[in-house]
Write a structure and sequence with these properties.
By secondary structure, the protein is α+β, with helices and mostly antiparallel strands. About 15% of the residues lie in helices and about 35% in strands. The chain has one helix at about 30-60; strands at about 1-5, 15, 90-95, 100, 105-115, 120-130, 130-135, 135-140, 145-150, 155-160, 170-175, 185-195, 200-205, 210.
């Protein structure tokens, strides 16, 4: 049974029994046409909302999905469209296991958010003597977050892998080995991203003296 309101204002709905469309040869009534159009519009809006939601999720995750680009090797600046680095003090710290190290030896490097809310979703980490990228990093075998990067030599830089929010970290730890012939002070520095639009550059450790 269907109801179709009359075009006249104030008129009561007229009810009538209709055969299924498959058993009828007459064209759609005005009421049936309007109902079909309304249904199609409703379905279209549902698909549009779903599509917009998917795009938003993709845009959000793209900022930390594949790691830093090679174009960031020198300035450690993420290529996140028009987003600028934060100017507030970084809520992250980089520490080393020693303050003096013999050339060719290794030390532990820890990157940590200062509170549980300060998660690491993206990172680009290097050790430098002046402007030179030096030494090599080694990953823990169970590290599913990080990957080695080549900014001159494979392993001289660390960045993140593609991951979802469940793999965000508050603390990351790596092993760094000094070059065998280095006699200088080094600083471990990083760009750390909380998300695509919120990131800090020039997060640094205290200097470490490398001795021959």
């Amino acid at each position: 049974m269907t109801a179709c309101p009359s075009k006249a204002l104030g008129a009561k709905a007229i009810y009538s029994f209709k055969l299924p469309r498959s058993l009828r040869s007459d064209p759609l009534t005005h009421c049936e046409t309007c109902a079909a159009v309304r249904f199609e519009l409703k379905v279209s809006k549902m698909f549009f909302s779903f599509f917009v939601t998917i795009l938003a999720v993709v845009a959000y995750t793209e900022g930390f999905s594949h790691g830093a680009p090679e174009s960031a090797c020198r300035d450690l600046m993420p290529r996140h469209q028009d987003h600028k680095p934060q100017t507030s003090p970084p809520p992250y710290a980089i520490t080393t296991s020693v303050r003096e190290l013999k050339a060719g030896d290794s030390m532990r490097v820890t990157v940590e958010g200062k509170t549980p809310a300060n998660l690491i979703r993206g990172i680009m980490l290097q050790a430098r003597a002046g402007d030179d990228i030096v030494g090599l990093f080694k990953l823990d075998p169970n590290d599913s977050f990080s990957q080695l990067m080549n900014c001159g030599v494979l392993g001289d830089t660390i960045t993140h892998k593609k991951h979802d929010n469940s793999q965000d970290k508050q603390t990351l730890t790596y092993t760094w080995t000094a070059p065998a012939n280095l006699n200088d002070k080094i600083v471990v520095g990083a760009t750390i991203a909380l998300n695509k639009s919120t990131f800090w550059v020039d997060v640094k450790s205290a200097p470490v003296k490398i001795m021959p």
